[in-house]
Specification:
The structure holds 2 protein chains of 2 kinds. Chain A is built from 9 helices and no strands. By secondary structure, chain A is an all-alpha fold. Chain A folds into 2 domains: 1-79, no CATH class; 124-197, no CATH class. Chain B has a single domain (2-53, 75-133), classed as Helix Hairpins, CATH 1.10.287. Chain B contains 5 helices and no strands. Classes of the chains: A mainly alpha, B mainly alpha. At the A-B interface, α1, α2, α3, α4 and α5 of A face α1, α2, α3 and α4 of B.
């Protein structure tokens, strides 16, 4: 029962954090809040028995992601240029879609129901058969590396492609210009680089 | 009373949908690209929480075998899928941030409206040049 109320509290905390992300203008504050959001999500994952997901989220989602955002902000303005006007039609769209989804969510199996279809098909096989086959007590590691190794291979390919993309984007003709900007030296070839792009 | 109970029982699903729509709202309505990326990552994590909620079995424990018989374990399959998705999400974020940095270098702005205005101005200039040539 305690577990349930902790879950309700933490997940409501996410709503508060998201509200302030929408309201705030300072980008540093927004990035810090998104790190807090990831850390709260990691706590929720621990509470819902997903320990492996929790430490990946804490390390990668809250750590590396925040560092990447802060590193990018070094070259960017730290404030939103002008306050975003309240846009009625997008809010209406979001509310309509949200209500439709909530309506659909009530026909899902109840939260934590052991008889839900998702728990009856392959999951029992993974839990019962993986230890005799591979002798690793952690079922998640087993499934990740042994049963679904190709998924992980695909993930590595995606990360590799994204890495190549980042390198190609950031080591272009304007690399020297970026270094000069970060050292607050006068930018001389601004016109030239504009013509290039 | 029973409806209140069912709302509280499925509070996870409702909040996940609220977060998802908040992320969508940020992506649509905000002009700043960094804030759009944060909105995208909020949308993403809401899906992660949804999957993990589906995998939860009440009274269960983490799917690490204890050797004690009759232990109830949560469903390990959503955990595996989300583990992959988190890492891919960060890779996407990195690519997006690299694009934003390059956009700022090239146009000195990361606000959507300013960039669109620049594009329209460029279009006018090109048209004028064509007219002059003619």
């Amino acid at each position: 029962m305690v577990e349930f109320w902790v879950n309700v509290f933490l997940i409501s905390l996410l709503v508060v954090i998201t509200f302030y992300i929408i309201r705030l203008k300072s980008l540093i504050a927004i990035v810090a809040l998104s790190g807090a959001y990831s850390l709260t999500a990691a706590a929720i994952f621990v509470n819902m028995d997903a320990v492996d997901v929790a430490f990946t989220e804490a390390a990668v989602g809250s750590g590396i992601s925040t560092i990447l955002f802060l590193a990018a902000l070094r070259y960017l303005p730290l404030e939103e240029a002008h306050h975003t006007r309240f846009s009625g039609w997008s809010l209406t769209l979001c509310i309509i879609v949200g209500l439709m989804l909530i309506n659909a969510a009530f026909s899902l199996p109840d939260f934590g129901d052991p008889g839900a279809p998702a728990h009856l098909h392959v999951a029992p096989r993974y839990i019962e058969e993986s230890y005799p086959l591979f002798h690793i007590p952690n079922v998640v590691t087993n499934v990740l590396a042994s049963y679904r190794g190709f998924d992980t291979l695909g993930e590595v390919v995606v990360v590799f492609t994204a890495g190549i993309g980042v390198i190609i984007l950031l080591t272009g003709s304007t690399l020297s210009m970026r270094f000069r900007k970060s050292e607050n030296l006068p930018v001389q070839n601004k016109e030239a680089s504009k013509k290039e792009t | 009373m029973s409806s209140l109970y069912s709302v509280l029982l499925n509070w996870n699903y409702i909040v996940v949908i609220m977060l998802m729509m908040a992320g969508l709202y940020i992506i649509i309505s905000n002009q700043n690209f960094i804030k759009k990326l944060v909105g995208l990552s909020i949308f993403q994590s809401s899906v992660f929480i949804f999957y993990i909620s589906l995998g939860k079995v009440s009274g269960g424990t983490a799917p690490i075998l204890t050797g004690v018989s009759d232990t109830v374990y949560s469903n390990p399959l959503p955990h595996v899928l989300i583990l992959t998705a988190i890492v891919v999400g960060v890779a996407t974020n990195a690519l997006g941030l690299a694009l934003v940095v390059r956009i700022h270098e090239a146009f000195d702005s990361i606000e959507e409206k300013k960039l669109l205005a620049l594009k329209i101005e460029d279009g006018h200039q090109e048209n004028e040049q064509k007219d002059n040539k003619l």
